[in-house]
Amino acid sequence: MNESSPPPTATRPPGKRRKSWYIRTGRRLLTSVDRFIARHSRVGDPTFFDPAEFAWVRPLEADWQTIRTELDDILRERDALPNFQDISQDQARISQDDRWKTFFFYGYGYRMDDNCARCPETTRLIESVPGMTTAFFSILAPGKHIPPHRGPYKGVMRYHLGLQVPEPRERCRIRVGDDIGYWQEGGSLLFDDTYEHEVWNDTDGVRVVLFLDVMRPMRFPGALVNRVAFNLIRLSPYVQRARRNQQRWSRR
Fold first, then answer.
1. Is 241 buried (19+), middle (13-18) or exposed (0-12) by CB count in 10 A?
2. Among candidates 41, 188, 48, 59, which has minimal Cα distance to 121?
3. Is the peptide bond before 14 cis (omega within 30 degrees of 0)?
4. What mean pLDDT, rounded, does the chain reach?
5. The pTM is what?
6. Residues 153/233, Cβ–Cβ less than 8 Å
7. Of the candidates 62, 212, 184, which has an alpha carbon nearest to the alpha carbon of residue 126?
8. 93-146 pLDDT per residue, tens
9. Least CB-packed of 50, 146, 216, 242 within 10 Å?
């Protein structure tokens, strides 16, 4: 290139689209909100939380077999359940196959009435969890790997109740930051999904957890900011599109 040549312009890789303005703006805002939330969190900012510190965990663990019974009915039609990316299209970044199935009860506070009616005891239990915003069965097929990724928002804690965990347990695991967690049936994992995390089911069996997002306990004025931020996310095009996708699947 000679001195009179214009400088090269930046280009995006072929097939990579520029993200929508509201996604780019929202992510910048959430970065600032996440720092605020970490400072005002009443439970610190670890990768994994101790489930024993949260009273709402005990009833879920005590009744896990009741939830498992309702899950078994749903799993009879596992192949027909929606893939996660069919509901939340943003998940196509980390999963493009049909080995991560979902059955939603709540998504960002929106209730899926038909699914709740099919699992009334599970619904009763999750609705008793204070600050629950999202709840679904997360179903991973044998050999499924979910690559490293981060959640969008620090204002919630992510909870997994092990319902069906194949052996060997050590080959069915989650990494959060530099820490590794293992599921067990009737046991809980509670973590901050804004840390980079990665999931493996390196077994021949199907792994299922009850997946919840629960509002993080905050000191004032953090709780108020957290609630406002959550409601803005709830009204975002991203969430509304996922809600419509779930409604379309339910009508099928």
1. middle
2. 59
3. no
4. 88
5. 0.86
6. yes
7. 212
8. 888 888 899 999 999 999 999 999 999 999 999 999 999 999 999 999 999 999
9. 50
